[in-house]
Predict the structure of Secreted protein.
Amino acid sequence: MPALTARLRNRPAARRWLLTAATGALGATLLTAVPAHADGVRLTDPADATASLADVREVTLRHTARRVVVVVRVTDLRRSARSGPAGAAVFYDTNRSVAGPEWRLTTGLHDGTDYQLVRSRGWNGTVGEPSSCGYRVRLDYAADTMTSWVARRCLGNPPRVRVGVHVVDQHDPSHPVEDWLGAARSWTPAFAPG
């Protein structure tokens, strides 16, 4: 079980629990239960995909009254795909009674790439056309981060949301490097809007 540290921060609009998890081994459980009033979490991931510049190192999730915001920090986000094309997916679980994610946001990690939000059927399938609802992705190469947000109404205004994060580096297409936040197909804790 990873070491956990929790720190309460006061904000003008809401009180937030920020949790930091350090995983010691691939596949370790990141977090257990968190307070019901919490609206965000920051999780760290070990350097477990060191063959990739897009090794996931930290993910921050914030569930606000209007948006679900996910910030993914990788080892070295590059503007050009010459170092190896890479992409990311953020999976959204809005209904825990159904196995797998209900939504998936996919994006390239290089300048000029596109992104889309689609309904998901399990971890590998999609349903229908990309959403025309409100969502955005911003790549910050100086900070090595991908920031995405999806309007809560796009996700059906769920009472709680949890996410999974997956990055694939295709520098060597015969041996793609995959990295998940935590274990493969694992989730952050679920959070109500704050």
About this structure: The radius of gyration is 16 Å.
